[in-house]
Amino acid sequence: MAAQGDVTIVSTKHLRLKEATTPLPREGVVVMQAERGGHTHTLHGEGCLYDTIETDLHIGTLTVPEGREALLTHQEHGALLIGPGSYRIGGQREYAGEWRRVAD
Predict the structure, then answer these.
(1) What is the pLDDT of residues 21-78, one digit of tens each?
(2) Bridge partners (DSSP) listed for residue 11
(3) Please, which domain of life does this record's source organism belong to (predicted)?
(4) Cα–Cα distance for residue pair 5/74, rounded to 1 Å
(5) How far is the C-alpha of 2 from the C-alpha of 84, rounded, in Å?
(6) Residue 53 near residue 90, CB atoms below 8 Å
(7) Is the pTM of the predicted complex or chain greater than 0.70?
């Protein structure tokens, strides 16, 4: 498990989620647009697959084939390298008198 700001990356090995089937475009895909600073969390990865899900805290599913790597980038948080496997890309929530989604 890893996190980059308000985005989480969790292995799906024990979650019984289907692997992603849509090739990541060459320019990458924005998985979350920051609400405060205007920065974006963007996934890049030649040969990787990503399906957008968009439920409450599940943003999408990423599949990184053997021999490949994906990169999650953000202007303030830097980059996070993701190795082979399938992952649930999600958001985070916090309790501040009520549950709400973390705003980065």
Answers:
(1) 999 999 999 988 766 566 788 999 999 999 998 777 788 999 999 999 999 998 777 7
(2) 87
(3) Bacteria
(4) 9
(5) 14
(6) no
(7) yes
